[in-house]
């Protein structure tokens, strides 16, 4: 009940803005992997993230964009599905992957090093598609895509 009240308050205050979407491609050893991602660029969008969602299409995700590289930390509070978190440097390369993060956990998940973006996709997708640290991410919002 409390989560619904929280979500209602977010909607009421206008903090749950509709996110813009963008194409994103990851170059892997298995070939290019294509996604359509929601962009989280405002503090409100970043705060809400993928909370309260019961599912996410296989080729979807959310890209959190920062103006400059910084060390970031995420948690899974109010997130109902496991996610893979891909921490992406300013050069577009994946620096670290936190795989199959635990739903509802409040344990911080750190980028460890400064990053320009974080991509959240369904848990297990990185392993299934062969996505690894060092792979290149292309997306217009990162400044290196179509």
Notes on the protein architecture:
The protein is of the alpha+beta class. The chain has one domain: Protein of unknown function DUF192 (Jelly Rolls), CATH 2.60.120. The chain is built from three helices and nine strands; from the N terminus they run H-E-E-H-E-E-E-E-E-E-H-E. The strands form two sheets. The chain has a seven-stranded mixed beta sheet. It has a two-stranded antiparallel sheet with strand order 4-7. The radius of gyration is 15 Å and the shape is globular.
Class, according to the CATH hierarchy?
Answer: Mainly Beta
Please state the second-level CATH architecture. Sandwich
Q: CATH superfamily name?
A: Protein of unknown function DUF192
Number of strands: 9
Helix and strand element order: HEEHEEEEEEHE
* CA gyration radius, whole angstroms: 15 Å
**Number of helical segments with 4 or more residues:** 3
- Mean pLDDT across all residues, rounded? 90
Side by side, the strands of the main sheet go 6-5-8-3-2-1-9
Number of domains: 1
Structural class: alpha+beta
What topology emerges from the helices and strands here?
Blueprint: H1 2-12, E1 21-28, E2 31-40, H2 43-48, E3 60-70, E4 73-74, E5 83-88, E6 94-98, E7 109-110, E8 115-122, H3 125-129, E9 136-138
